[in-house]
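Q: Could you write out the predicted structure for this multi-component system? I'm mainly interested in how the pieces pack against one another.
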Amino acid sequence: MPGNQFGQLLSLTSFGESHGEAIGGILEGMPAGISIDLAFIQNELDRRKPGQSAIVSQRKEPDSINILSGIFEGKTTGTPIGFIIANEDQRSKDYSHNEDVFRPSHADYTYQAKYGMRDHRGGGRSSARETAVRVAAGAFAKILLSHYNISIHAWVNSVGAISIEKKHTELDLSQIEKNSVRCADPVIAEKMIAYIDSIRKQGDSVGGTVRCVIKNCPAGLGEPVFDRLHADLGKAMLSINAVKGFEYGSGFAGTLLKGSEHNDAFVNENEKIRTATNFSGGIQGGISNGEEIYFTVAFKPVATIMMEQDTVNASGEPAVIKGKGRHDPCVLPRAVPIVEAMSALVLADHLLRHRSSQI
Amino acid sequence: MPGNQFGQLLSLTSFGESHGEAIGGILEGMPAGISIDLAFIQNELDRRKPGQSAIVSQRKEPDSINILSGIFEGKTTGTPIGFIIANEDQRSKDYSHNEDVFRPSHADYTYQAKYGMRDHRGGGRSSARETAVRVAAGAFAKILLSHYNISIHAWVNSVGAISIEKKHTELDLSQIEKNSVRCADPVIAEKMIAYIDSIRKQGDSVGGTVRCVIKNCPAGLGEPVFDRLHADLGKAMLSINAVKGFEYGSGFAGTLLKGSEHNDAFVNENEKIRTATNFSGGIQGGISNGEEIYFTVAFKPVATIMMEQDTVNASGEPAVIKGKGRHDPCVLPRAVPIVEAMSALVLADHLLRHRSSQI
Amino acid sequence: MPGNQFGQLLSLTSFGESHGEAIGGILEGMPAGISIDLAFIQNELDRRKPGQSAIVSQRKEPDSINILSGIFEGKTTGTPIGFIIANEDQRSKDYSHNEDVFRPSHADYTYQAKYGMRDHRGGGRSSARETAVRVAAGAFAKILLSHYNISIHAWVNSVGAISIEKKHTELDLSQIEKNSVRCADPVIAEKMIAYIDSIRKQGDSVGGTVRCVIKNCPAGLGEPVFDRLHADLGKAMLSINAVKGFEYGSGFAGTLLKGSEHNDAFVNENEKIRTATNFSGGIQGGISNGEEIYFTVAFKPVATIMMEQDTVNASGEPAVIKGKGRHDPCVLPRAVPIVEAMSALVLADHLLRHRSSQI
Amino acid sequence: MPGNQFGQLLSLTSFGESHGEAIGGILEGMPAGISIDLAFIQNELDRRKPGQSAIVSQRKEPDSINILSGIFEGKTTGTPIGFIIANEDQRSKDYSHNEDVFRPSHADYTYQAKYGMRDHRGGGRSSARETAVRVAAGAFAKILLSHYNISIHAWVNSVGAISIEKKHTELDLSQIEKNSVRCADPVIAEKMIAYIDSIRKQGDSVGGTVRCVIKNCPAGLGEPVFDRLHADLGKAMLSINAVKGFEYGSGFAGTLLKGSEHNDAFVNENEKIRTATNFSGGIQGGISNGEEIYFTVAFKPVATIMMEQDTVNASGEPAVIKGKGRHDPCVLPRAVPIVEAMSALVLADHLLRHRSSQI
């Protein structure tokens, strides 16, 4: 497959460039008969869209979803859900200065190398605008998961060196949507917002991490060997623009522990087999064990900055480039719904896969 | 697909339990006419097999590969390569004490939850013995890649808190196979070996990291959006037993940098477009840019330890378990060829995918 | 996968119901840099659309394609081509009488059984309207194939008992588009048209066969074992609405021959290895041999007729149904471009697959 | 995928050449906990093996299956079932005369064209020996289907011009395994056997048809649009060696009927919705409707004959070839279990796919 499809039984195929007429997708595999709350779908898109606060890109895109099929009288029909999201505020001419120059740490050079040509308007297919399609599809997946009481919660855990210090189990997740940076700790949120604002004024950009928790996932999801639940989650996260790393459960810090410290003892809690600790991150042998699934995703600083940078043009001649247009100084606040959406697609897919294996 | 298959155009399907008659696989998609050096294939397996040094499991498995198809007169025929590796030193009775008890941080409980039953002999399908199949298939992939001069080099970068401090570009990679821990820094290697030995004597286990570099990968490999080269590498790594995290290029540390520090300026070096730095890790927009690809993989401490641990049995009653049998106190030295093999499968698959897209 | 996707490397994902807002698709895998003649794409759709002649449905659908991505400055970019085709002349109320009644030999009952609900407006997803998406995608595939000089020619070979008697090698294929029934023999075409007209006046319907020839296919396309070229062609044809059978080369008639009569002797013709006869239909062992590929597809009579028929409603009570709305008395003339489109998708996919296997 | 894999959720990957060490496969997706009767598996293989009667090839292959994984204490574990079947009576030297010559209507020339080389011993991968793997996998699928009371019955319907005249609903299917040609009509069976014997003595070969009926398939199996149940059955059949055509339900003969004759009226039979006739062949809109599924498969005469035939060698020079070795004068009797096996794989796969779509 040429790489624009995600999922086996709940499967999203995506299309669209940042500066074409529209982006969109086809979501296959939603079971029939599920009520779809369109306002919820749109709200998820609104959480990702530009212009929602002072610390993100000011591009004006309503990101209104137009669902073309697969819903009849408010319910899924079991047939594919086709949808489009128009590109309205394109301003391609903001990018005319890029036509012949490779932007550092963007995909300009690699697309040129791969395809022998590229749509230079805002990155074309490589633009993060494509993630709106994921958020729309993920919203459907969240609705499916809600039938099983599974919920997904992501938040910004760090921006540069400013990081939440509390364990995720100590956080009040209802705080996340109450601040513009989507940090689960309101005090840290203020620091992050101030820092992003200062970075924006410098014309620079900054990276950070998103943490995600999945609650009420039943034991048994995930496949042995290659399609381990965390491997599919990892691929999902690493497929998001600007992501540089993924860790789940104890993660990289777990490499510093001994087995006697790291193993999660099984205990019987009210006639339910649980683990006393959760270094496993809710997944053992690639299969969910019923505990909370949690993981962290690293995002690099945004490549587009409002400062002069050295580069070359397509002929290899030295050039200087400086960002124009409307860009995010930090992608983290808008990455939160994307992380959730990709998580939802993975979980819902594995839910359907698991069901098919039960005689 | 039920999860035992990896790759699109170069595709490995795997089978086998640790204590069944044999494990094996089918590798589809090797182009026809490639000379296969069987000694090289076997040598790769020997790098992974138990009993190769004092710091790994002493299970005696020759891991001899028996290739059943797809090779004719020393060359690939273009048809699938079926192969098996016998399980010879099984000692299933080492595991009879596990029949009714869930080993902490193993897959016993999750397999039971998923399948309603499990093969309790040494983990069955969840055992890392399965990775021998990956190493065999990866050896074929390495041969294919060698036709394009692409080479893959992994080493143990840290064991617990003992870590190489040098940048990978400063290391002498020819040192890796000269010490039993497969560390690229001989001085650090000695410390790691001594530490693993002390951990082994305690009956405990320890984790660490493997780093991997891919050299001479041409620009253009990787697909847009979901099948980004690093996303497929990440999934490949996260599908290996005991892996908890993956980062490429600047990774998690890159989240602390500003865009102005992190961006890789393009330069013209002897009429070749290159980057002045390589925070991108050789991949931009999910597509290789011709620079070195590098990434790091986190392995947790081995779950089986020779110490008493609290757990429960299948009825939820408290139990105490203590490892028996022959186990690795640290998987890192044997993980090196596995990381290389999975990298080779990803690269070779994307090489074939890229070729199919060129008119 | 949930069944709305076709092809491996050139892959079409389809969505849409007959009476929703639009139908459409995503075509992945078109190599970059191919000039796209939009007038050709639209012309292919015009060959399938209703209302094009007196012998087909009079539904008024312009079937104008709107391409939303994947084309930049007139050329493919290598990224997915998203497109939609609006449903304009829907008249859903023509179907309100069907809401609770199962139309005989339609998919009403089976969709209800599968999904527990259905979109009763004109068949919803089961409507042949969906084939417009295939024709659009097939037009792109034809453009790709034209770069390799491969051409595809289908025609109506029989309508009921009225059949072309000549061998396909004796026909003048330039006649096909010169008559409204798309028969390659103008004399037989007149008889077919008169017969379809009489059937239409009776309120009845009629079946027939389409034959297809693929010229200039190079030797080597097709995969061993399961994905034989003719197996993929057969699946492609059998996936078209109303198709009941597929045969290639000598087909069912070939079962009456002895091996000594049926074998195609190899000959050297101007330094090219060819076959003296072509009972093989251009495919041997599932792989093209360079001769003409030809096959025949059987279409049943249209299920919707303007006559009273016995049936039951969803409660199992007896009911009588009579077709309303605008229907084809014979699908064959409009099936011709669909057969070509699906053939083009199969050939182009196998062309890309073959390319990926050549080191 | 490179073409050696069949099925989505119940998935067979196959390997092996006719004259290599062994053939085999990996069957993924069998749900856990199903008791496996190994004698039944072997018996299915015995129905396909050579040497079972005077009218088939006298090659002596016990075709003993060796199951290497996926079964524990007599039950499936949910993990992949790896199995091999040794090639014991290979006599490669019977084929040494073929090394440089293309056998007419075999795959010699096309494999050479595709791969630039070939394993000339008995066809290598293109040999029908590969179908033993399908029969083994199909036997597992039959066991799965038996849990749902679904049964599959194939028989030889015609050999050359000798054909059963009765409708399949009038046949006593218990007769099939009582004669060596596997014809459901004992009187016709005698004629077929005598005819095959005379053809064998002439050194010639003959084709024919196999018919198959699937009983007790519940309504609802099959996917819309591309993966219609009959499309997947058709591909499955067309992937079998020597198959030239497939038709289901009314098939090609149905093209001669009018809609008013062909439509299957729905009736209420004992509170069950059924059809009064079954021209639909148990499938409507690509989805099973609960009636008997039936179809017919056309097999060409065997290409290998014991008569001199004109051909060319790899240099294009004229040559004469004459079959040696042990060949079937008619593949039909041995094709019966292959048709059943492929049918079972399709049905079981769609059964699992259907289950995954039910919330």
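A: Regarding packing and overall arrangement: The helical segments of chain D are 38-48, 108-115, 131-146, 186-202, 229-238, 259-262, 332-356.
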